[in-house]
Specification:
The chain is α+β, with helices and mostly antiparallel strands. About 50% of the residues lie in helices and about 20% in strands. A hairpin with a 2-residue loop joins strand 1 and strand 2. It is rod-shaped and about 115 Å long. About 15% of the residues are buried.
């Protein structure tokens, strides 16, 4: 083999190595860009889920408050409410917006009808998606005013 042939053969081998190195480099860069893109998509989805959950929390809290207000309105409309519902029994769900609310009245001794002077707890429960919020109000029976204050 002459010197010129040896030089051409060596140059071709070097060129092939360079093309292989370039190919591997391009694949590496492509892999990095793809990983960055997938990471950006995942971060975007997590941020969106956080915003949606935050909205669900806010709406569930409002629904729980609505449950308490609805319970007060229902109790106010019935003279015999203490015998009409059982202590701690959750009243049927009411749909409102994207969620539902329920309410319940609970007497500490377990019997609402035994004494009208018993206080009770009125609880509203709001549910939106995967979020549940609860709001409770302690209700004390109103005692008559002092007779010395009568005019």
């Amino acid at each position: 083999m002459n010197r010129h042939a040896k030089t051409c053969h060596a140059a071709r081998r070097t060129a092939r190595r360079r093309r292989g190195t370039l190919y591997v480099s391009v694949l590496g860069v492509t892999l990095i860009v793809a990983l960055l893109g997938m990471t950006a998509i995942t971060v975007g989805r997590l941020q969106l889920r956080a915003v949606v959950d935050q909205d669900d929390h806010r709406e569930a809290r409002l629904l729980a408050r609505s449950g308490v207000e609805y319970g007060f309105a229902w109790l106010d409309g019935k003279d015999d409410w203490r015998s009409a519902i059982a202590s701690g029994a959750e009243q049927p769900a009411t749909n409102l917006g994207r969620g539902t609310f329920t309410w319940q009245a609970t007497d500490p001794d377990g019997d609402l009808a035994d004494d009208v002077a018993d206080g009770f707890t009125l609880r509203g429960v709001g549910r939106v998606g995967r979020v549940t919020a609860v709001e409770e109000v302690q209700v004390a029976a109103q005692s008559p005013g002092l007779t010395c204050l009568e005019a």
